[in-house]
Design brief:
Structural class: alpha+beta
Largest sheet: 5 strands, antiparallel
Order of helices and strands: HEEHEEEHHEHEEHEEEEHHEEHEEHHH
Number of strands: 16
Strand order of the largest sheet: 14-11-10-15-16
Distance between the termini: 5 Å
Shape: globular
Radius of gyration: 22 Å
Oligomer: single chain
Number of helices: 12
């Protein structure tokens, strides 16, 4: 477990604070910690420069890197910006024959144009900020003009009327996160939206409280608390249920469309189950951004174990600062240390020189 290894880090790279030995990485996010531990394993020195920014300096012999929230010198700035712009990323991928949802970009205040685009798309749609992460202000499966205008009003209240938003077709598939590198290393997760399982006794609200208590005390994996917000209330109301409803025993009740782990989604390792064509498409995505060393790809399909066709999948977004922890500590399935693949690229000279450390291996991978 990570917590078990934190104690060992004090012995490996201690720091004196008020006469006591303190873990100098304890205030960093788990994603950054896992990356740091992989570097420590290779005798790469790591110093924290700024905790709030997740900025560290890593040094191996004469090779020095400033790593800012997992970004290093191997991640070209312009590619990070392009990938973060959901509309531009969509256009680049389309030009490489990659299936993406059809859509268009507008300012949030251009409601009439957005409604017109909705009728042109002629299907349920998704509205989301052109720049954004963690599923915030993303509204899915919108089927009426009223739903669209309501969603736009919320985005304007949160981000301003000049915020650029994307309206695109809603693709009804299962969501996966495909992490892939230019070295052809990869890991795949299935992300299921937040949900509870009924027991015939407790209300949905009580089941959420029980599940959150189980997830966080103690925290055993990358799962976050199920977020109980307005979106949950709205989602349930469209299905004629409330948080006070009591689901039947073993009844699965979804709480939102969005599967983001930060909002309570479930992550299950699928690396050994995916068809090779999924990985080929992932490599094609990297080719659409020349020089991109790795990416986390939000991949929608209902046929991930079968050969993919242009109609059977959609690439939703590209992430140049992908989550590490959800692959490392999924709710179900094998642990995948994608930090290894990242450090292989950042410090390639350490690939053959990694030190064997059985104590470290046991602490890091034991769950």
């Amino acid at each position: 477990m990570l917590l078990a290894f934190q104690t060992m880090v004090v012995k490996v790279l201690p720091q004196k604070v008020d006469g006591k030995m303190e873990n100098i990485y304890k205030n960093l996010h788990s994603n950054q910690k896992i990356l740091i531990y992989e570097m420590l394993k290779r005798n790469i020195r790591v110093d924290v420069i700024n905790e709030e920014l997740e900025l560290v300096k890593a040094r191996y012999q004469n090779h020095e890197e400033l790593i800012y929230d997992r970004d290093s010198s191997i991640m070209p700035y312009q590619l990070s910006v392009l990938a973060g712009n959901k509309m531009l990323a969509k256009e680049l991928m389309m030009s490489h024959g990659i299936s993406v949802p059809i859509g268009e970009e507008f300012k949030a205040k251009e409601e009439n144009y957005i409604v017109e685009a909705f009728h042109v798309i002629n299907s349920p749609v998704v509205i989301k900020p052109v720049f954004g992460s963690h599923g915030y202000d993303v509204y899915m499966n919108l089927q009426t003009e009223e739903e669209i205008r309501t969603s736009l009003e919320k985005i304007k209240n949160h981000r301003g009327e000049n915020t650029k938003v994307l309206i695109e077709e809603y693709y009804p598939g299962k969501e996966y996160r495909v992490f892939i590198t230019k070295n052809r290393d990869y890991a795949v997760l299935h992300r299921d939206p937040a949900h509870v399982i009924g027991d015939g006794k407790h209300t949905i609200e009580e089941l959420i409280e029980i599940e959150n208590e189980y997830r966080m005390n103690p925290r055993k994996n990358a799962l976050c608390k199920i977020l109980l917000d307005e979106e949950v209330y709205n989602y349930l109301s469209t299905r004629n249920i409330t948080i006070n409803s009591i689901p039947r025993e073993n009844e699965k009740v979804y709480l939102r469309e969005n599967s983001n782990v930060a909002m309570g989604g479930i992550c299950e390792d699928y690396t050994d189950k995916v068809d090779q064509s999924v990985i080929d498409i992932g490599l094609k995505v990297l080719e659409a951004f020349p020089g991109l060393p790795y990416a986390g790809i939000d991949y929608m399909t209902n046929t991930i174990t079968n050969p993919q066709t242009s109609d059977s999948y959609r690439i939703i977004e590209i992430n140049t600062i992908p989550g590490i922890d959800m692959h490392f500590r999924p709710a179900y399935g094998k642990s995948r240390n994608i930090a290894k693949y990242m450090v292989d690229l950042i410090f390639p000279e350490t690939v053959e020189k990694k030190q064997s450390n059985k104590i470290y291996q046991k602490s890091l991978y034991n769950k």
